[in-house]
Write a structure and sequence with these properties.
The structure is a homodimer.
Chain A lengths: L10 H11 L3 E5 L16 H13 L5 E4 L1 H5 L2 H18 L4 E8 L3 H14 L4 E4 L5 H8 L5 E7 L12 E2 L2 E2 H9 L8 E5 L6 H8 L5 E3 L9 H8 L6 E5 L1 H4 L7 H22 L1
Parallel strand pairs in A: 1-2, 1-10, 2-3, 3-4, 4-5, 5-8, 8-9, 9-10
Antiparallel strand pairs in A: 6-7
């Protein structure tokens, strides 16, 4: 298999990018061939063609891109090839961009090491999302990679978050227990957390437990979360937030102008972000 | 991408196979190229060559095979191709074998649907392991596939299982809460659960909550679990157990005789299983 080697991107560099671009926007590259403009389907690799156009049109407005691996796996080998091309394109053309593999992996120790190597070493993503259910030895293999971040699912933005994550363990919600416990693990400075925007007041308590870690925030916009509310409670001295938007940006138009339409949507969010950053 | 269509395998057929073969053994196909016999590395696809030899030598002793996707993803596109070849080989040559994609996936609703289609429709696995942390709407898309099973992580066999899974929620451990809650979900008859063999007495209480579901049991042997103890508490009227062994079988020898050595190890377990089945 091919392996790509680039300089890793540290969180300090991410913070610098946020201040340079006045943006903490992450764009989710969740490509569904039923939703991309019809003319792209004639391309040799429509998924990559779509991503390339979106990235080229929005890279100055976003600091991070997050392909969700489910969308690529769904297209089999061709899908994995599109994912490889996308991360390579980002690393070669926009090395200042922070990259997130939204893979939600996690397995017993040795097996997690394999996932970590796949996404960090072979594909050269800066970070990966990981599920916490199997505990410390399923997450620590990811944390061992220096200058790579492990984004642990804490409080997700879907309805099912209330099935287990908000249940109380010894008087404390499971998601808080996950954040607290993980802060005691080796190399915990490499942790970030997924925290959905749907309940902004939760960010206050999360910041008490994890004042320094970056939070990756889905659910602003489409799922009803408010950017201002999230920032009110979630910002820290490093900004510390990556706000993700996927469908709201990449499917803004299904016409020939899809990339420009995506840029306009990204611009709207970036403008809001600039206003917030200018005030702190 | 290619799609394969075969008759789905129902759990009734699985039960029938167990009685026919006097075995409830599942063999984990976790292929590590550093551990396979050196002569296989000259093959065009060493991973598939290894799997094919193991399957041909053990198919009469096992009722199920379980490739862990981490091991295939680690080899990039070639690894995914080996996985496709392996499941196709099983479905074409041993349609009586039950197949498990050990993928530990799980995401928000629409995204889980994509994972379900990938593993159930395109790759045509009979079942997939799924992580419960994101709750109902992350699991139900898998359960919608009739005659396909969703194997929810409940109590895993690793040390980290004690970080969150055995914590108490309203007086009850998280893993029991996961089993109980999931029994109320739509199409819950399509559920199985992962329950590690490391604490056999746990099976008693689990059988109170989930008397009918199959349990996929890792951790017998290498990780210290006892087959007899697990069966004492875990068997139900349909047998209801799939005991997994991976490394203990497939890496029994790294020499030219690796497949025969694997068959001998599988035979040892099958003999123990036959004794147990003959008594009930």
């Amino acid at each position: 298999m091919r392996a790509f080697y680039y300089n890793p991107m540290t969180t300090q560099e991410l913070v610098k990018q946020i201040h340079t671009k006045k943006s903490f926007l992450c764009i989710g590259l969740d490509v569904d061939l039923e939703k991309v403009p019809a003319h792209l389907l004639q391309e040799e690799d429509p998924i990559f063609a779509f991503n390339k156009a979106i990235i080229d049109a929005t890279h100055h407005l976003a600091v991070a891109y997050k392909p969700n691996t489910a969308f690529y796996e769904a297209y089999g080998l061709e899908g994995w090839e599109s994912l490889e091309k996308t991360i390579k394109y980002l690393n070669e053309n926009y090395p200042e961009i922070y990259t997130i593999a939204d893979a939600k992996r996690g397995d017993i120790g040795n097996t997690s090491t394999r996932y970590a190597k796949t996404f960090f070493s072979h594909l050269n993503f800066d970070s990966i999302t990981v599920a916490p259910y199997m505990g410390e030895d399923s997450v620590v293999p990811f944390l061992e990679f220096e200058n790579k971040q492990t984004i642990l699912l804490a409080l997700t933005s879907n309805r099912g978050a209330f099935d287990f994550q908000t249940q109380k363990v010894e008087g404390e919600e499971v998601y808080k227990k996950v954040i607290q416990t993980s802060q005691t693990w080796k190399n915990h400075h490499n942790l970030m957390y997924v925290v959905g925007a749907t309940k902004a007041e939760y960010f206050k308590e999360i910041r008490n437990i994890a004042p320094k870690n970056f939070l990756l925030v889905p659910g602003v916009g489409a799922q009803g979360g408010s950017l201002k509310e999230v920032c009110k409670y979630g910002l820290n001295e490093d900004v510390g937030l990556l706000i993700n938007s996927s469908r709201g940006i990449i499917y803004a138009s299904a016409e020939a102008n899809f990339a420009e339409a995506a840029a306009l949507k990204a611009q709207e969010l970036q403008t809001e972000m600039k206003e917030i950053l200018d005030k702190i």
